[in-house]
């Protein structure tokens, strides 16, 4: 079987890049004091057997969950073109207060439609988010017998039945 030569991006009329090979990334998103992790196929080709290995473990959701070991990062069988999956990591204040890792290397492995293996490493430095200012959403005052509502409540997994 002849070796395929690398393909170059194709730019469409709207200026966006289209690739005939999948390109999967992992990113950390800071949004008003919350840190999220995103796994995204930024190409127009599907990715198969996607897995992400982090160089060190890290915890989220108030320290309750080892986020780096979620099934999302171990066994994602199919990631459609332009598909993005995002999960809450933690509030930035809680994450940094626990002294969780700030330099994280993600190694992403996946296969294309022809079964060819692709791998990329992305280094993230979360310390850039330590000093960012943000406004908290306003919270209505508590009334007698009613607890103070939280602007967000960390949850994971399935709801109890």
Characterization of this structure:
- The protein is mainly beta and 161 residues long.
- 6% of the residues lie in helices and 39% in strands.
- It has a domain at 18-126: Immunoglobulin-like (Sandwich).
- The strands form 4 sheets. Strands 8-5-10-11 form a 4-stranded antiparallel sheet. A 3-stranded antiparallel sheet has the order 3-4-9. It has a two-stranded antiparallel sheet with strand order 1-2.
- The radius of gyration is 19 Å and the shape is elongated.
Give the key terms.
161 residues, mainly beta, Immunoglobulin-like, 4-stranded antiparallel sheet, 3-stranded antiparallel sheet, 6% helix, elongated, disordered N terminus
Along the chain, the helix and strand elements come as EEEEEEEHEEHEE
Largest sheet: 4 strands, antiparallel
Q: Return the structural class.
A: mainly beta
Ends distance: 54 Å
Helix run count: 2
**What topology, given as strand order, has the largest sheet?**
8-5-10-11
Low-confidence stretches at least 5 residues in length (pLDDT < 50)?
A: 1-15
Q: What portion of the residues fall into strands of 2 or more residues?
A: 35-45%
Overall pLDDT metric: 84
Instruction: Name the shape in a single word.
Output: elongated
How many distinct beta strands?
A: 11
Q: Give Rg in angstroms.
A: 19 Å
Overall helicity: under 10%
In CATH terms, what is the architecture of the domain at 18-126? Sandwich
CATH topology assignment of the domain at 18-126? Immunoglobulin-like
Q: CATH top level of the domain at 18-126?
A: Mainly Beta
